[in-house]
Amino acid sequence: MSPSSVNRCIYGYFVSSYAERKSRFMKWMTKTFKGGSCNRGSPRGQQPQFLGERPPIRSLDDRSEASKEKEELDRATAVSLTEDLKRPGYKCRTDNDEDLGRPLNHDLSSSSYPPYPPKYAPSYGPWEYNPRSYRVCSGCHGDIGSGNYLGCMGTFFHPECFLCRACGYPITEYEFSLSGNNTYHKSCFREMTHPKCEVCYQFIPTNTAGLIEYRFHPFWSQKYCPSHEHDVTKRCCSCERLEPWNARYVSLGDGRSLCLECIESSIMDTGDCQPLYHAIRDYYEGMNMKIEQQVPMLLVERQALNEAIEGEKHGFHHMPETRGLCLSEEQTVTSVLKRPRMGGREVVGIRTHPQKLTRKCEVTAILVLFGLPRLLTGAILAHELMHAWLRLKGFRNLSLEVEEGICQVLSYMWLESEVMPRSRDMPSTSTASSSSMSSSKKGVKSGVENKLGEFFMHQIVHDTSPAYGGGFRAANEAVNKYGLRCTLDHIRLTGSFPL
């Protein structure tokens, strides 16, 4: 809806005794034309010539006292009406005095005088006047009658019929906004068209150039002031939405915060994550990619994960916000042993346990951040298990784009099987999808959780990094064209994706 310029109303008043006063004015004017005004132009003793029968001549002395008083009253009424017409801000029913001219013409025509047409009457025929043409309200389509009225947009309204399209209340201000044929209060039009920040709920301010500038999340469509990207506003570490002022996020105690929707399905300790971990291993087995080794899986805090990354000698690259790790070296890692409890707007009572990981194969353990929603935790596990599968199957010296790209494909495929079952028509994944559905509490997912799953898929598809984003798009194109098995065989032989 495009904004419009400010429009104005003209306020007026129809006199309640208008018909009565006009009638008296007409009678007085008729008598004036028939009496003193016309006689003054005739020679003494000579009467004016009339068409038809000559009217009887009456002297002024013959008139009764009552007639004189009535004539004086009519003359006073006409003078009063004339003064009203000259008064500032007074508006008659018409703008060109046509409804005043019509009864005058009618009265003169009813006498023996020839008719006098009004100033703007057409020259080709008799002038017709519709007394209701200027009195119909464009709101209720009823007769305006006497009292206050509004004149705007070339028509008239009852004051109570000139309504705002947004709130439905009458517009009583002198100025209003117009969009198409719809009228609005200026405040309602601003409320409807000027965007509000979904964080502070204020109108988004204009920049130095006078333009409305705001930030917009591509998936959630959240609009917010640019200043909130640099102030103390929290951002959910899972869905990336900024914290609104009317709903506080939950702090996980390590610099991360979760929104109330993400925390509903969050996994807080290693024991809670074990069923999901085994379901994803079953998913791999259903695609003939069984992982024979029993690789430990631990949920850890942020600091523990960062320490494990620094201790990894191979120097594998990870996402800027690292949320999972496929560990190859022997380390002692502190895992979250007991699910923390909610204490106000933060989790408290986290119980951790140091665990020494020994290397029994190419993969020592898989680490994932605690507190993330179930679908995001599963997507991270699917990604890291693909790293483990590649190492255990002897895929060596792969480029960052190839290894991270194919791992992102497996993460995306698992999310797809959870959010949109059987959406990818691949025979090798049908068994895994049914296995995952039966073992990952798929029947209890809410619409909110499904929406989160769609967002995590959106993140993978629209990632802008060369390794994770570019690698995924190249790997996904190859898998869609040749299938997962052929793509993996080609990677083993050439270290690249098939074209």
Automatic annotation (TrEMBL):
Transmembrane segments: none annotated. SUPFAM superfamilies: Glucocorticoid receptor-like (DNA-binding domain). Signal peptide: none annotated. Keywords: LIM domain, Metal-binding, Repeat, Zinc. It comes from the Eukaryota. It holds the Pfam family LIM. Residues 55-75, 88-105 have a biased composition (Basic and acidic residues). Residues 135-195 form the LIM zinc-binding domain. The keyword Zinc applies. InterPro entries: DA1-like, DA1-like_dom, Znf_LIM. One of its GO terms (molecular function) is ubiquitin binding. The keyword ATP-binding does not apply. Residues 428-444 have a biased composition (Low complexity). SMART domains: LIM. Residues 36-76, 88-110, 423-444 are annotated as: Disordered. This is LIM zinc-binding domain-containing protein. It comes from Anisodus acutangulus.
